[in-house]
Design goal:
Chain A contains 15 helices and no strands. Chain A is an all-alpha fold and about 375 residues long.
Chain lengths: ~375, ~375, ~375
């Protein structure tokens, strides 16, 4: 039961972290009907500051990385980031009473990368004397940003389909009623036709992707990425965006907590699915990444330490870059669902169970 | 005249401090009809940032303190914080033409604690080689926060009573007029009844306390206190809330100065009462605290250095935590009254007169 | 071609600086129709923060300077700051299709001072072992602030005249039409009279200067200057206004870039005039300052190193203090015009051509 006590210690420690502390604080503030409020322009600006920082740090990391050497692992990282979202969409998302947008947002958060889990992995690898490429840590934005973009686009697609379906149904019902027909009767027959016409074929994917990319969330993220890649924003990043990040994040958490209270009830009947997903997803994602990493190991000589890091990156779920992006990109998703799953269960599992597992695996394979 | 010159030097130095400098700057800006403005959402957010920082630092100080050992001095600190507000309410508040809410706010500021005065006290005690408990400085939030809460609740109570009285009188006048009676005549007789009924008995204290605590000012303060006590916000406190504090305070001072110009005239006829209060209150508060501290000295062995610190904490008036709290919690009080009294007179008196007095007293008593 | 390659390197480096990077980023964001926005209250507050910082740093520099000794060079600096704006108004401003307000704003930016160009000048002087007065760098606010104030007042004067002229013409046309006359006919005769009456004599200069000074831009600038001069804001300057400056400036640049896209077309036909002005103005301004500096050299013994610094200050164009001031003070001017001219051409010319030129000149004259 050594693992269990370690897990519980991490779990309790996480509850005291500023991130979760401010989230719970916001929930309490809302629960006692306080009139405390963060003005909306401030909230929007905080989200912008957080997203551009996430983009900048990703862009700077990629610019400083050895792109040729890391080509295959980076491509695998992108692939894993995208696949994780689809896995979440079609496992968690199909559980009874789980809302699809909540599932997509949660999967997006588990595809995104936690800087602190990554740092823990780096530290343990160094302590154990396992070698890895110096650019291996720079793989994280290749998984982080595709996962968040995929989640937002997938959610937009789903929401648009839903709207069109509903609109089509309403129109159909009107037609039926107008024609004096019996809606309950002919409805079954008639419904099939407009569905396949407007909902499945009619939804054009590219306009929705474009629309998602033009949204304020992905715009800020990609702007930061481009500025980090193409210009030299290090001075302003180190003196401004990075130092303010944790503080602004704590305020965002407060706002999300204040909103979460009202939506906590939604989770009462589905909490077990989130707990289950959050427990197994980090390990599953880590194993997928470990497998792909081993392929890169045999093809390009990617180090075993690098394989472990890729697995840790995949196992980690973001409590930093993810929440502001998802909050702005999928506003209809319930923050209590995805933040709760990630910080309360996913991160402790990745830290206490994932990292030792992948390191042990690498040591066995490396002989 | 050594004291007088020292006092004047401190007084002039205070006028050049950023806190008072920005206040006066704001007054000048308003006086020359500048169109300079701080947008309202920014102002609200600045107040929030200041209040949560005050709460956090109090909470962290209490969490790190030895609660069992400091029980009696801490209880005395709470008591002194509350008593100071009532003293101000019933001395300054009953002077002719002094507005009650201004008096309550001023007393709240004199009950709150100045970090810089406390630091000066600590430095002098160390220089003089007088011993004190390491947790003695952590007594300040036990006085600071109760004083501010008491002031806001007392002001809310007073304002609610006033409103009810006025409403009752208006209704009475309407009834009299509606009945065709002579208002001037019967008014005197009739007035007594509804007053005692609605204004004195009718005001329920608990809903008003609850209402005050739900207000944005005390909510932010208590949220910060709770987060400081129950979570580990040190990283975000040190990297965000604390470094931004002085700068945001200077901007708040600018806003308060801009507002103060319009209300400076109110003080013309009552300035002498504020000066008198601000001169004697720090000494009186310090002596009360010194007396209670001596009781703790004889009962629990509280050190004489600790007694001096308790007196210094009581003598100090906050130019930091107080203004934003009172501005948001008692918006109808005139900031020129309370900030002017505290920074221009109260703090120099506490520093130049209070600290040497209490140290001398302790040295005499300690033999 | 050593100069050309050096110039191109500097030019490309400038394009990667955070200042210009965020400007171009903003232009791209707007060009792809992103919905990214910086809320208006945030934008206003950022401008305030930048302006008060510029004022504070100027005020602190002047307070710490030896005013008696630097009297003549400082007076020359003020003079040069004002003259530069008039030169720009009557050279760039009279080119075909160049808008007068854009020309005034550009001249204001070339009159304002670039901290980084000044720092480069100081470094090179020290490397070459050329002596200069320690207060010489403190001459910059004496040129910077008068240039910006002159530009804003000149633009206000021009805009007011234009409005009055247009109003007078409209009224005249109405009168003519009302009287049944032929507007095209009598218009020529009649127009002369009201023009000279209302537009030239009728515009009172002092109310417009007062109005400009009361505007939010100059108010914030002068408030900062006064606070820097008269109080001791160093603590809050070092801990708050200065560290936040570069970051907030980058966000302002983003906003200005987003606005610039829409107005870039305006410059298509006049770009060559801006390029020409931006290439020659730094050298011309530098030579004027060098000449006046030599007068101070012969009268008061102002060092030759000081003369070089005065010339560098005059040759530099502000990419820091200028943009926020001009954006808020002359909102109708096109930011693409003045920022583009300054950062893309003016600053590289001053650095690569101006500094070596003035140092060489001083070495020739100093024997």
């Amino acid at each position: 039961m050594d693992f269990l006590s370690e897990f519980l210690t991490l779990f309790l420690g996480k509850l005291q972290s500023p991130t979760l502390g401010f989230l719970i604080g916001g929930m309490v503030v809302a629960a006692v009907n306080s009139r405390l409020q963060i003005p909306d322009p401030i909230y929007k600006f905080i989200v912008f500051m957080l997203l551009i920082k996430v983009g900048l740090s990703g862009g700077i990391a990629i610019r400083n990385a050895n792109l040729v050497e890391m080509l295959l692992p980076a491509a695998f990282a992108v692939l894993i980031g995208i696949v994780i979202v689809f896995i979440g969409r079609y496992t968690l998302g199909i559980m009874p009473k789980v809302k699809i947008v909540d599932a997509i947002a949660t999967a997006g958060l588990f595809g995104a990368v936690s800087g602190s889990t990554l740092a823990a992995g780096l530290t343990i690898l160094e302590t154990e004397g396992i070698k890895f490429e110096p650019w291996a840590a720079a793989l994280y934005p290749f998984m982080d940003i595709p996962a968040l973009v995929t989640a937002i686009v997938l959610a937009s697609l789903y929401i648009t389909k839903q709207k069109q379906r509903r609109a089509a149904e309403e129109q159909l019902n009107k037609q039926l009623v107008a024609a004096g027909g019996y809606p309950s009767d002919k409805g079954i027959v008639a419904r099939g036709y407009p569905q396949s016409d407007t909902a499945d074929e009619g939804v054009k994917i590219w306009p929705i992707i474009q629309e998602s990319l033009q949204g304020s969330a992905l715009s800020a993220l990609l702007l930061g990425l481009a500025l980090g890649l193409l210009t030299r924003p290090e001075s302003v990043y180190e003196s401004f965006f990075n130092p303010l990040f944790r503080g602004l994040l704590s305020i965002l958490m407060l706002v999300m907590g204040m909103e979460a209270t009202a939506r906590l009830g939604e989770l009462r009947k589905v909490g077990q699915w989130y707990a289950l997903y959050a427990f197994f997803a980090p390990l599953l994602h880590g194993f997928i990444a470990f497998g792909l990493g081993m392929i890169a190991h045999y093809i390009t000589g990617f180090s075993l330490g690098g394989v472990v890091l890729l697995a840790v990156i995949a196992a980690s779920s973001s409590d930093i870059s993810g929440p502001p992006t998802l909050r702005a990109g999928i506003p209809s998703a319930n923050p209590s669902a995805y933040i709760g799953s990630s910080t309360a269960v996913g991160t402790p599992v990745a830290l206490a169970l994932g990292i030792p597992l992948f390191i042990g695996l690498a040591q066995v394979l490396g002989g």
